[in-house]
Amino acid sequence: MNKDFDKSEIMEINWEQQKAISSPLRSRLIALLYEQPMTPKQTADLMGKNPGTIYYHIQQLVKHDILEVESVRTEKGIVEKFYRAKAMSFNNPEQTSPPGYVDGRTANIYLSKNLVAQLSEDLENLFYKYGHLSYKEKDTEEQLSYSVEFLIKEFSGEEKE
After folding, report:
1. How far is 85 from 67, CA to CA, in rounded Å?
2. Is 78 part of a structural domain of the chain?
3. Is 151 a member of any domain?
4. CB half-sphere exposure, 28, CA atoms < 13 A
5. What is the pLDDT of residues 88-97, one digit of tens each?
6. C-beta separation of 82 from 41 below 8 A
7. Is residue 59 assigned to a domain?
């Protein structure tokens, strides 16, 4: 099953898959297993979580075709399955966008209060950067008017731990 994984590759998913990947824990699992195939035990150790919890979530992601078994190794009579995420970015073509929508992303991730503040500051700096770049190119490129928004809110979904 070895294949080259492209970070820009976007996997099309359905509503059930979208629901399956919607928790911060599963998003973190996908990110870790996209970078490197691991066993549930290795993943649990890395995340500081209970192996049974991680195994459950990995099985749910396999069931919904988000993760796959990349390799199987037997060591001292114990079968170890190494899982890999099929993609890092996902798109649900059935999801409709509001009128005027151009582009957007959503990520469910764990952040400390410090990281939330840093992310907010970084996003604000990006707005200033693109405002400045826009001004510099105003005489050489056709420009349209856009409203760019960001929202950081606490995850309110149910998560089985």
Report:
1. 4
2. yes
3. no
4. 13
5. 888 888 877 7
6. no
7. yes
Place of tokens 């050489």: 140
What is the H or E stretch that residue 30 is in?
helix 24-35
- 2 pLDDT more than 50: no
Element (H, E) at 121: helix 113-137
Q: Per the structure block, which two tokens stand in for 89?
A: 């970015």
Is 157 or 128 the better-scoring residue by pLDDT?
A: 128
What angle separates helix 51-63 from helix 40-47, to the nearest 10 degrees? Answer: 120
Question: pLDDT tens digits, residue range 36-76?
Answer: 999 999 999 999 999 999 999 999 999 999 999 999 999 89
What span, in angstroms and rounded, lies between the C-alpha atoms of 19 and 12? Answer: 13
> What CATH number is given to the structural domain containing 33?
1.10.10.10
Domain extent for 49: 10-91
Is 118 within a domain?
no
Q: Contacts for 102-108 with beta carbons within 8 Å, 24 or more apart?
A: 102/146, 107/27, 108/22, 108/23, 108/24, 108/26, 108/27, 108/155, 108/157
State the total domains in the chain: 1
Contact assessment for residue 152 and residue 120, using Cβ atoms and an 8 Å cutoff: yes
